[in-house]
Design a protein that fits this description.
The structure holds 2 protein chains of 2 kinds.
Chain A (H helix, E strand, L loop, with lengths): L14 H17 L18 H11 L15 E6 L7 H14 L4 E5 L7 H5 L2 E15 L9 H5 L5 E3 L4 E3 L9 H5 L5 E16 L2 E8 L7 H9 L6 E5 L6 H7 L4 E6 L3 H16 L4 E8 L4 H10 L3 E6 L2 H8 L4 H4 L3 H15 L7 H22 L4 H4 L1
Parallel strand pairs in A: 1-8, 1-9, 2-7, 2-8, 9-10, 10-11
Antiparallel strand pairs in A: 3-6, 4-5, 6-7
Helix pairs in contact in A: 3-13, 7-8, 13-14
Chain B lengths: L1 E6 L17 E6 L5 E5 L1 H4 L5 H12 L3 E4 L4 H9 L3 E4 L5 H9 L16
Parallel strand pairs in B: 1-4, 4-5
Antiparallel strand pairs in B: 1-2, 2-3
Classes of the chains: A alpha/beta, B alpha/beta.
């Protein structure tokens, strides 16, 4: 990690720099072998997380003096998930983020698929900085340990083995709950950082970019996902590119989301896994809508499934060889496939209809709608044809 | 010497369970007194993770010095070594037969190659 850079990128809002110094200091201390208890290092990047965000944003860059409700300044958290892998989550997430930024919105894209992040291939971020993510695991002082077995009894994950003369810790089974430290009567247990991955922060055009990468051989991704979420700079919109499936990494991503877009494809596998994803969203009480990728005209089964679940289909990306070609080259499809940016604008307008007023500040909604319609009118005038969005 | 045999049932006629941490029962035999007891391992069998370490913890508390089982995972392997519990290989037959074979010195010790990590 190099020295703290000057605040060139717009994502550095005062706290970013200070936090980096904090992280650097921690990293130095760890390198020097000093037993510093670093929970998730990247936690320092996000300062105190979302709470800090409101005040930081208001003092440093007030958006509107008319906004009295500070909660209104919190970003809309939108997750892009799917049951099945490879349905187009990253395609939808990256293009949607770019389109929102194009319409003047402040957007953070967070790649939460920390086991196989690929958002950077399409957003190509600059000024990328890397932060280590650690979680705490216990370490037993064999001199202090009296072999009472309390730590082994409190551990719900069987990560501590208490033998007559030795106490063994299994880092890979530990969930970093800290229970063993609390119950140890002789204070023989201290917590040391265990490196689990990195969080990268950069900027892709007008989109702020955050991405987590889990260290190969680590089994548990939620600590890295949490670190990536804590590292988010303030914005109007947060686009979370979720991992595939419906396991704990997805739950970690969808938690606290305002809305989730489920990307599906009209195939038997796609529908099967969409059903699981719909159940997950229902269980987590996150409102959701479906975006169909590689769509064709009828798709009766998919529509029936969404109808039964009372979930709207908000957009359809056509099954088009030009899209596949652009994707395979790492291009953003709205940039190279003619007319596709309108599909995304249309998706945004449908999404605005779905988002509750308490989630989306009125001003943000108004600004975005006006920007989308103004853009459409301008393009229509240039092409000498009627606006397409107005007609639909 | 106390010996633990991983079994699928609670009595000495029950077949051997080839799994260690997720065995259904442990049959504990005291080779000096001939006393036999059964330990229910339902908790270990259904553990989300760490079934092996939990089993070693239980056996170490009971003072077991050898286990007769089929396969031992890498974490349980380390744990058994640390607890100085010897591992012997049995793959079939009843608990009683396994115990007799052990006393007759016919069982071979498990080697580290028996403890492959799964992907």
């Amino acid at each position: 990690m190099g020295p703290a850079r000057s605040d060139k990128g717009q994502w550095v809002r005062g706290w970013g720099l200070a936090a980096e110094e904090g992280v650097a200091a921690e990293a130095k201390a760890v390198k020097a072998g000093v037993g510093v208890a670093v929970e998730v290092s990247a936690a320092a990047v996000g300062a105190a997380g979302r709470k800090e965000k409101t005040s930081g944003r208001q003092t440093l860059q007030p958006k509107s003096s008319l906004v009295e409700n500070q909660d209104a300044l919190l970003a809309v958290r939108l997750a892009i998930a799917s049951g099945k892998g490879g349905t187009g989550k990253t395609t939808i997430a990256t293009n949607l983020a770019m389109r929102l930024a194009h319409h003047g919105q402040e957007v953070v894209y967070v790649d939460c698929d920390v086991e196989a992040p690929n958002g950077h291939l399409f957003l190509k971020p600059d000024e990328v900085r890397e932060y280590p993510v650690n979680r705490l695991v216990p370490q037993v002082s064999q001199e202090r340990c009296q072999h009472c077995g309390d730590c082994g009894r409190i551990c719900r994950y069987n990560a501590i083995l208490c033998l007559a003369e030795r106490t063994l810790i299994y880092d890979e089974l530990c969930h970093s709950c800290g229970g063993c430290v609390r119950v140890c009567p002789t204070r023989a247990i201290t917590e040391i950082p265990h490196f689990v991955g990195v969080v990268r922060i950069g900027i892709a055009g007008k989109v702020q970019f955050v991405s987590g990468t889990l260290k190969v051989s680590e089994a548990s991704s939620p600590p890295v996902i949490r670190a990536a979420l804590q590292a988010m700079p303030p914005s109007d919109w947060v686009i979370l590119d979720a991992p595939p499936g419906a396991a704990c990494s997805v739950v970690e991503t969808l938690r606290d989301c305002d809305y989730v877009l489920l990307v599906s494809e009209p195939t038997p596998f796609g529908l099967h896994d969409l059903q699981i994803a719909l159940e997950l969203a229902k269980t987590l009480a996150v409102p959701c809508g479906v975006v169909v990728n590689r769509a064709y005209s009828s798709m009766a089964e998919l529509r029936e499934l969404c109808g039964q679940a009372q979930v709207p289909v908000l957009g359809e990306i056509p099954d088009d060889l030009a899209i596949a070609r652009a994707y395979s080259r790492g291009q953003r499809i709205i940039d190279v496939v003619p007319g596709l940016h309108r599909t995304f604008d249309h998706l945004l307008l449908r999404l605005l209809e779905e988002l509750q007023p308490n989630v989306l500040p009125f001003r943000t909604r108004q600004d975005l709608e006006q920007a989308i319609y103004a853009n459409d009118r301008m393009e229509a005038t240039n092409l000498n044809e009627p606006g397409r969005l107005m007609a639909t | 010497m106390k010996v633990a045999i991983t079994t699928q049932g609670p009595d000495s006629a029950s077949p051997v369970d080839p799994r260690f941490g997720r065995a259904r029962f442990f049959r504990i035999v005291d080779t000096e007194s001939g006393q036999q007891t059964t330990v229910d391992n339902a908790e270990g069998m259904n553990a989300v993770q760490g079934a092996g370490t939990q089993a070693v913890q239980a056996l170490a508390r009971l003072g077991v010095q050898a286990v007769l089982t089929g396969h031992v995972g890498p974490k349980a392997w380390n744990a058994l070594q640390a607890a100085k519990i010897q591992m012997y290989s049995v793959t079939s037959g009843s608990a009683e037969a396994a115990c007799q074979a052990f006393l007759a010195g016919q069982l071979s010790m498990l080697t580290p190659a028996e403890a492959p990590g799964h992907a």
